[in-house]
Amino acid sequence: MSAIALPPSLPVVARKDRAALWRAYGLLAPLVLFLLLTFVGPIGTLLWRAVADNELPQALPTTARALSAWDGRSAPDETLFKPFVADLREASPRDLAALARRLAYETPALRSLLATAKREVAGLDGSVAAMGALDQRWLDNATWQTFKRAAGPVGSYHLLSAVDIKHDYQQGLVNKDEAGLYRSILARTFSIAAITTLVCVLLAFPLCVFLDRRTPRTRNLLLLMILLPFWTSILVRTTAWMVLLQDGGMVNALLMALGWVDSPVHLLYNRFGVILALVHVMLPFMVFPLLAAMAGCNRLLVQAAYSMGARPLRVFFQVYLPQVLPGLAAGALMVFIVTLGFYITPALLGGPADQMISFYIAQFTTGTLNWGLASALGLVLLVATTLLYLVQAHLARRGAEGVKR
Amino acid sequence: MIAQDLRPLPKAAMNIESDASDPLADAPLLVRFEEVCKTYDERSWVVDNLHLDIRQGEFLSLLGPSGSGKTTTLMMLAGFDAPDRGRILMDGADISRLPAYRRDMGVVFQSYALFPHMSVAQNVAFPLNLRKVPAAETRERVREALALARLEGFEDRQPGQLSGGQQQRVALARALVYRPRMLLMDEPLGALDKALREHMQLELKAIHKQLGITFIYVTHDQDEAMTLSDRVAVFNEGRIAQIAAPQTLYNRPATRFVANFLGETNLLEGRVISNAGGFATLRLEEDGSLHHARCADTTLAAGDSAALAIRPENLRLASGDEPAVAARVIDSIFHGAHCRLRLHMAGGSELSMTYNPGSLGRPAPLPGEAVILGVPPQLAMILR
């Protein structure tokens, strides 16, 4: 890229051209509408779910206002109890059930505590003594902190939960008790994606060098063979791996027939099976950008370096690799990002310790109906992916200034 | 092969006329191609049984149409390709399989092949860094090489900021900075415009004179080859049709191909009557006229078909007692320094003739006029 950049000339768009421009944009309208309805809308709603916390304001509106005023550090007193008792009398059972589920995400015991309070609401007057008589836990600061975190209508509870952090109004941000549950899932997701990417790079690089040196005819034939599994349904491919890898499967039968092992090797429901299938799925994403970069590489630079006395290793690292690096980075990023969101393959081929973040998102969405946490985990994944992309784009831009002309 | 065997091949075997004007005839041999063959598709030879002697310090051009094997020859010399048959000797040692990085040759490519992620100075310093030259010496030698290529002050530019001519100078400085035994150039001026190309030709010639190392220059431009070279090897279909000094090639082409490829030549078909002592007699098919002319090819015998070759500038309008042909003027074109006539003979053969309008000594012929053209025996050639 030339460093002498001409100042960008301003486009002169006449009124007539502008109309043509809008007509051109008009052709995009159906697509834009489609994306708005099916992608931007749902994703936006989902992300809103990650921060929305409206069960408590829905069920106990005046309590929610009182909780916002409370500092969360002092002992709970009648400023909280009185509106709580008043709201409890009015609250519909349906809203209370939703609130109980929401509070139980954090403290399961609150479900019964709340149910008892509703049953006994006739005998409550909102005094400290009455609340204490009902249950000592009503006087506990921790109970009302849980209420305050859920007081909404917008809160950080789900987001912080997704990275195992809790906002304690007395101690600030603290680690939750579950010993880094989601952080370890996130780390596992990233490590599976990283290993998959690494294996893809190691397999694709020599393969692309080989393909790059073939005649176009041979190359296209071989590319077709790489693409063939790519055109097969991912579910079919995954089940095919199950057939191959199970204890009584073809691979184990072969290993035993050859006398290499005495009893079946466990290839399925562990990290090995997951990575194997992921690499199989992702390899084309690595091969195509890398092959394109290699095809666009200026071979004369390599020859020139040789003629000047550079040895093969040096030529590879100083002349060849810098030229194919953008393609390598693009492929690696593609593999990494797509792998981060994988669901089916680890769900079918992995054990409980090999599940990636998508599995938990799916579980919270369809299983336990904790949409807030599901959305928060999705948001964490989205943010991580976006950050990675920005870093790669920055590196690629810097690389492009140096390597490409 | 031991060194004393490295005498140049007998010239008759290479179809070369002995050439008194060759200043480097006695220079020691540097490289020899011995029966070198190369194929890419296993069907046809790109380079076919090539013999080529390269002398120490000469400027040798490999000239030929595309696909004639000249670039392949250069690539084998540089070490990017290995011969399929035969061998390449340098100082008597077989280098056919020696990797390029051990050959100590500088290579300049048509598309410059500068490292785009390095500045001009870093590009030129690259081969010195490979050789672990100390930093202070590297700076000095980079400065010298850039001065030689007239690029002072461009050290910190990036290759993309330079014009084509400047980039090629950087490539030249980079190929010369480590003082290689030979400099190989593959159509280095092919991507430049005409004025710049002519300017660079003069500079290349000056650099060759100043350094005294062997330059091998591949080109398809006959003017370039003639301007630059001590010797020119004309390639055709994987073989060398003729290798000689430019004047010899022009005045004494060995084959029709060479006669046509370098400059323009009128060729008139005929049959050999006799051939002896460097001259032959030919009867033209066109009008049965007899022509006596130089003939270097001793294998031509009576009855063989051959052609009378004469340059347009060597035809004469005023006929004396020399052999002549009759023709009719079709067209006359004024070029300024010279005029060109297009003529047809009675049998349909086309001739071209150029003359200097000031020294014609008679009125210029007009289209339609019948003329007699003299063919001087000393300037015409009889070619197979």
From TrEMBL, chain A:
Write down the membrane topology.
Answer: Multi-pass membrane protein
Where would you say this protein principally sits, based on its record? membrane
Give a GO cellular-component term: plasma membrane
Instruction: Please give one Pfam family short name.
Output: BPD_transp_1
Example GO biological process term?
Answer: transmembrane transport
In terms of InterPro entries, this protein maps to: MetI-like, MetI-like_sf
Q: Indicate whether Transport appears among the record's keywords.
A: yes
Q: Where in the cell is it found?
A: Cell membrane
Family annotation (PANTHER family): ABC TRANSPORTER PERMEASE PROTEIN (PTHR42929:SF5), INNER MEMBRANE ABC TRANSPORTER PERMEASE PROTEIN YDCU-RELATED-RELATED (PTHR42929)
Q: What protein does this entry describe? A: ABC transporter permease
